[in-house]
Amino acid sequence: MLNATKKWLSLKLSSVIMVPFMIWFLVNFVSIYDSNYENIVEFFSSSQSALIFSIFIIITFFHSALSISEIFEDYIGSEKTRKFANMMVYLSSFIIPTITLLTLYKL
Amino acid sequence: MNNNPLSPHIQIYNWHISSLVSISNRITGVINILTLSLICFWVWMLLLGNESYESIFNFLNSIFGKFFIIGFVWSYSFQILSEIRHWFWDLGYGFELKTSKISGILVILGSIIMTIIIYSLRGFLI
User: Fold this and answer.
1) Is pLDDT larger for residue B44 or for residue B125?
2) How is domain B16-120 classified at the CATH fold level?
3) What is the ipTM of this complex?
4) By the number of CB atoms within 10 A of the CB, which of A2, B47, B64, B79 ranks highest?
5) Considering the domain A3-106, what is its CATH architecture?
6) For chains A and B, what is the number of CB pairs under 8 angstroms?
7) B102 in contact with A at a CB cutoff of 8 Å?
8) With helix as H, strand as E and coil as C, how does B42-62 read?
9) What is the mean pLDDT of residues A66-71?
10) Statement: residue B126 has pLDDT above 60
């Protein structure tokens, strides 16, 4: 299978998985964002919320990294710049969810 | 020398609903991931305790905070509906000009309606 085909399939599959999690997150987020510290910690400490939120951020960062690399492909001419930009996006899409998962585990 | 062909930039096209939704899909996608990064940062701040959280609490309860959250909900709603529109295209439906125009309008109007519904549901579901 061509790399471009694998990338396209990964984008489509992650999109189908991501949408229900996005809806879950929006509905819950608007309900807790202005709550006090204790309520928010309680929300993220619950194993159910922590698990769903973890899946949501992993899949969303994965999908976004692939989508943003498509944008770079379209608009960045220099291969060197494009590789660097892609590396930064992939790196942050790994680091940010990892730190967040560790934080959820510590809460 | 790099010969990678680039997309023509957006200013050379005439504006249509489809191009508007397409470029908005990309823009909201980038905004959404930046906002999600901020939300992850918000979760990290919880580790620092109640006192450090106070400034974030004050911001989120201010008028700017609420404006930020409503904008965030709209941007995500737009992305969700736009993704669903792409699923239909991937299955081979909705390519006709008229259908594509209607689905584009549905994404724009639907995202506004979805934002109102989701924000109105706050507190009811959890």
Assistant:
1) B44
2) 3 helical TM bundles of succinate and fumarate reductases (1.20.1300)
3) 0.92
4) B79
5) Up-down Bundle (1.20)
6) 110
7) no
8) HHHHHHHCHHHHHHHHHHHCC
9) 93
10) no
